[in-house]
Write a structure and sequence with these properties.
about 130 residues; Ubiquitin-like (UB roll); about 20% helix
């Protein structure tokens, strides 16, 4: 199945996203902030995070189950309660953070992908 094509990039492994994804309308890069928390100070921010990159993600298989599977592969087991969010491109966390509770919540993300966005920011709030 296509969702097994994606892979978590190794630490300190740099790949140029423009070179990898500009001519590929089926795949994208996900930047996943995890292990931290979203806090509201003067402005919303994600603190104490780790950052992982997931390469070669096939757009058409994106759904809630696949996102949860990715979080588990990052080291969070079934016993941990976590929330998944994505950030609208070109918008701050204050105004662009969207919580994903079900597949329907991904519709605005798909709108961004149809407009050519190739890098998606995902936040996992533990």
């Amino acid at each position: 199945m296509d969702h097994h094509i994606w892979k978590i990039r190794g630490d300190n492994q740099y790949l140029e996203p423009i070179d990898m994804y500009s001519d590929n309308d089926r795949q994208l890069l996900m930047r996943v902030d995890h292990g931290g928390n979203i806090v509201d100070n003067q402005c919303r921010e994600y603190v104490d995070e780790k950052v992982s990159y997931i390469d070669h993600f096939v757009i058409r298989v994106l759904n809630m189950d696949v996102l949860e599977d990715m979080v588990k592969k990052l080291g969070y087991d079934d016993g941990i309660v976590f929330y998944i969010h994505f950030k609208e491109p070109y918008v701050s966390l204050d105004f662009g953070l969207r919580t994903v509770r079900c597949d329907m919540d991904l519709e605005s993300l798909f709108d961004n992908l149809r407009q050519g966005v190739k890098i998606i920011d995902i936040y996992c709030d533990i």
